[in-house]
Fold each of these.
Amino acid sequence: MLKNWMKPLVGLFLFVGTGAAFGQNGRFQQAVDYKMEVQMDVKTNQYSGTQTLNYTNNSPDTLTRVFYHLYYNAFQPGSMMDVRSRTIADPDARVKDRIFKLKPEEIGYLHAKSLKMNGKSVKFKEVETILEVDLYEPILPNTTVTLEMEFEGQVPLQVRRSGRDSEEGVRYSMSQWYPKMANYDEQGWHANPYIGREFYGLFGDFEVKITIDKSYVLGGTGYLQNPNEIGHGYEDAGVKVPAPKGNTLTWHFVAPKVHDFMWGADPKYKHDKIQMSNGITVHHFYIPGEKTSENWEKLKELTPKAIDFMSKKFGQYPYKQFSVVQGGDGGMEYAMSTLITGERSLPSLVGVMVHELAHSWFHGVLATNESLYPWMDEGFTSYATNLTMANIFQANPNPQRGSYAGYYRLAKSGLEEPMSTHSDHYHTNTAYSSAAYAKGAVFLAQLGYVLGEEVRDRGMLRYWNTWQFRHPNVNDFIRVMEKESGLELDWYKEYFVNSTKTIDYGVKEVKASATGTAITLERIGLMPMPLDVVITYKDGTQEMVYLPLVIMRGEKVQEAGMPTRIKTEAWPWTNLTKTIQLEKPFDQIKSVEIDPSKRLADLQPENNKVEF
Ligand SMILES: [Zn+2]
């Protein structure tokens, strides 16, 4: 009797215990606080520095090892990035065999010279782009340790994203340049070797002091702390900047609550400072010339405009600064800044600026693990870019069309892999980029069709408010949209993200019936979707029949601008056909069309409409 009575009690205690632990286990974020001092030698392109990293283990786990990224070691012949680029079927034109051909003075490297934890040396091993560190004693949950490192590096000749002496003549594009702690989250360590794709960093405060030849102008992440000592366009109005005493200047930057730190540097940079009315300062850095000056002058009006539009649509930009820096090899996003090539036509310059700026929301602040979910960064960014460009140029009535076309090409190419693929492990660059950029954008655009545009837009703001600075994953996103819409959406993720199944619906038959007209629709593609079916009558009026999926457990609200919904019938996904009865006689019907809005990513649109 007692034993039997005790059993549930023990169970209850265990449950309570597990429940409490689960609360801590569920989600946590490691915290970093970087202080770095760097000396750059502009003659040898080598640099040395010290890093003091306060690392807080907020996880419930005891850590016996830590890992740092040493990205510059990828720029050496025979590296994983080099081998991958020389063996993949469709190499990035910017990389190809260029790493393989780098000479000793052109390669990149980043080495730890010493490493101490709380003042005592620790053992470490460099495995190409990852530094593996075996700790002499573990880092316990809820404790902070201080990791002090001396490091030295050589800036590679510009091949991909970062490096020196870019094609446009920019001396330094300093991204992925410092020893960076890998992320540890509820899915464990993410010590991915760098092969040239995506990133994932931890939020923290950065304080960076860079000592460099006094002729160089610097711009990038971070607020400059000594502008009136540095000058170069940073000084306050009316301030007379004293001449530097030696040959160098030490630039002192701080950047709170970011997960990366980039800087560009060139003696020829023109520095434009644009003050926005909401307190944000925009900085532009470019080398003036025939191919740049005119368009970069025009950009001064458009960068603030894009920040305003994005803030309204996706949430307020949270930093007080954004810097557009000429450098790199295309466009790449960093905290509070971007590196873009600058010799472009105006539409191209604006397009790349807007794209990299839009990353500030999805990569910068929401900060999804881009390696695991590249489409939640690149796809959402592409979607936002399309909208922002349409707003700036007031020209494109269907801004997401290009993304749909890109997805259709991918789906028909035979190369498609599920969007759940880790970015490093896609078989081809085509499959990766089309999935991440195009299909990722379609995911959001099509969600407007599933939920209704207004609900999707409100959901995007809710996503921002709920998950900013917290690294949301695909489930987090889906849950926000479920809460905002009241619909069940797991099926949308399972099919569109985790599989390559495609959508194809058709109007099979429209004929007179005893009660009026019978419309038979069929599902040909493997992915089920809700349908908007628009009936146009011979007198020009239109009505809509709406067919949500049973598994949505609800329906979207009537969308503004759409024909009035006269009928709603849920469609079980198991059924390949569905017949709807209309009261109107067959001879009054001019056409029946599935989704005239073209937001449904239907691979065979030819069978979507019948006309009489
Ligand atoms: Zn991008």
Note: The pocket of zinc ion is lined by residues 355, 359, 378, 381 (CB under 6 Å).
Amino acid sequence: MGYDKPLPILSDENRPFWEACARGELRLQRCDACANVYFPPRPFCPACACRQVSVFKASGKGKLYSYVINHRPAAPGFTPPYAIAVVELDEGPRMMSNIIDCPQTPEALELDMKLEVAFEKLDDKITLPLFRPAKG
Ligand SMILES: [Zn+2]
């Protein structure tokens, strides 16, 4: 089955992140010097440039920070309308994602609504971290 959405490009810096997603883990990095938690993965802290950083498994929980609803068929594989969301993780970093299991409407997509990660396996290399409304 073909998948025609644009896929992330794997690099040495982000490969461990995608390998963790394939195992159902959302991974973040934390600076050992200043405790800054950041995303996307990189070998040094974006706040203080320290290279002593640790990888840890995130809770996978967050909230809807902002979104736009795209009504135009801008990217192949996405059927409009769909929301391009910015999710603020409980650990602090924000990441772009899509919200699933939820109507793609302003009525359903409430800012600050609680979300949890849901992994969508695309192929052997890429499993996308998407978000859905948290249960309970
Ligand atoms: Zn730092």
Note: The chain is about 5% helix and 35% strand.
